[in-house]
Amino acid sequence: MSDQIFDAEQDISLYDVEVPWTNIVREDFHVVVYRDGYPVTEGHLLFVPVYNTIAVMSDAFEDALRYGKDRVVSGEWQGFNIGVNYGKAAGQTVMWPHIHLIPRRDGDVEDPVGGVRNVIPGKGNYKK
I want to staple 85 with a disulfide (CB 3.0 to 4.6 A). Which of 38, 92, 105, 128 is the partner? Predict the structure, then answer.
């Protein structure tokens, strides 16, 4: 089984492919953080692994999780969702791995129960 996440040529990096993101928040050896061009909420970020591997995607996920947690602890956000769109059926439009970090604030939706389950209309609140 390949260590690659998406089908792509071996040994290429983020810098070898065309991606639509331009607004860099920060970058390091493994992960580039961009502002989402079509933010769901204010502060919506994309954590993009420089290399198309599970290990670097894990680094990006950890970075997103820590970043989000820090914003909640500081009181800037009340919560956050993290998500990955994998495949056309899931809504993926950019064929390079990336993680969405979506800040959540009290009152930003009428009923937040179910969180990411709300990607399928009517399926979010499993308590009803």
Answer: 92
Range of the domain at 46: 14-107
DSSP state of 89: G
Query: What burial letters (b/e) apply to 33-47, b meaning 16+ CB within 10 Å?
Result: bbebeeeeeebbbbb
Q: pLDDT for 45-78, tens place per residue?
A: 999 999 988 899 999 999 999 999 999 999 999 9
Domain count, the chain: 1
Mean pLDDT across the chain: 89
Residue 62 lies in a domain: yes
Q: Where do the H-state alpha helices sit in the chain? A: 54-74
Alpha-carbon distance of 111 to 127, in angstroms, equals 11
**DSSP run (H or E) holding 24:** strand 24-27
What is the domain-level CATH number for residue 20?
3.30.428.10
Q: Determine, yes or no, domain membership for 56.
A: yes
Asked if residue 49 belongs to a domain, the reply is: yes
